[in-house]
Task: inverse folding
């Protein structure tokens, strides 16, 4: 099941270098769970129908200009009402200074007040984009994620099948490791999947008989990557005598992760097979298909066309 978690306000403050004008005890632990930001123009006039108190509130030049035109007593009443909804935080853009009435009511309601030098449109669009990615559904799956020729390849299969050994061979051949053993998978706003490693084990790999190695330290920064799109899944399984494996590749198979269908291949494993080379070819072929070229279908069409010609030659009308 996918996890829908919140983002701590402290994380937002640090990432966007926000100034804290007032922060009550424990304010950094407050959670943002909505991937949107609200400009409370209507709320400043007293209209709170359909108001979402879970959103961060952003005040810019328009809101400040409106507040400038009303009396201090009315400003105090406006902020008293707005802050009574206990939103995650209220941010002032463009380095604008909050009114004394704002700070007074913030202390009364324990409302976090933040400030940024960014203009309103920039901070709003950037913050929403970040929240949409950070709050997107996430699952964790067992496997290895590598980037091969720009394609994110997720290696799956039972424990001990050789996923890590194959991945380390791919790294030696110039490709990049994203995650070993556990992959955190997130659906991005565009509908694709992005995988990364849990922070605790990022860039580490377990090789049976050797132990745990730090791929970044052994092979350098060019051998690792923080995250990658997941473009295909390769299921590794022990070779089973008598099982019919796909030899043409005309039929497409998919794995569904977070309601996203990912192209999937089943690769049988047995001694003597160079799996790293096979996976390199699979990655290139997957990119080829995305560009509109399907070699298996082209071959099938050529064979069908040849059979049709042979039939007409033998059976002229």
Result:
């Amino acid at each position: 099941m996918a996890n829908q978690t919140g983002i701590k306000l402290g994380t937002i403050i640090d990432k966007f270098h926000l100034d804290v004008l007032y922060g009550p005890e424990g304010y950094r632990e407050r959670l943002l769970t909505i991937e949107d930001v609200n400009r409370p123009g209507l709320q400043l006039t007293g209209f709170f129908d359909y108001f979402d108190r879970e959103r961060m509130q952003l005040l810019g030049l328009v809101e400040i200009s409106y507040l400038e035109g009303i009396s201090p007593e009315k400003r105090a009443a406006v902020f008293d009402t707005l802050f009574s909804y206990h939103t995650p935080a209220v941010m002032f853009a463009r380095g604008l200074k909050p009114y004394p009435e704002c700070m007074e009511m913030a202390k009364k309601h324990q409302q976090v007040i933040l400030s940024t030098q960014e203009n309103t449109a920039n901070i709003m669009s950037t913050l929403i984009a970040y929240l949409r990615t950070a709050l997107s559904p996430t699952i964790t799956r067992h496997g290895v994620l590598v980037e091969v020729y720009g394609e994110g390849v997720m290696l799956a299969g039972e424990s001990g099948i050789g996923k890590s050994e194959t991945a380390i061979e791919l790294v030696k051949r110039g490709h990049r490791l994203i995650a070993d053993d556990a992959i955190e998978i997130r659906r991005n706003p565009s509908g694709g999947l992005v995988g990364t490693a849990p922070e605790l084990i990022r860039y580490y790999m377990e090789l049976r008989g050797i132990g745990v190695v730090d791929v970044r330290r052994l092979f350098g920064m060019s051998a690792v990557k923080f995250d990658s799109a997941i473009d295909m899944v390769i299921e590794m399984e022990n070779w089973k005598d008598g099982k019919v494996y796909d030899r043409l590749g005309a039929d497409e198979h998919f794995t569904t992760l977070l309601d996203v269908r990912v192209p999937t291949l089943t690769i049988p494993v047995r001694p003597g097979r160079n799996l790293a080379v096979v996976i390199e070819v699979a990655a290139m072929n997957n990119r080829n298909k995305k560009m509109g070229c399907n070699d298996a279908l082209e071959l099938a069409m050529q064979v069908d066309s040849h059979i049709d010609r042979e039939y007409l030659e033998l059976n002229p009308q």
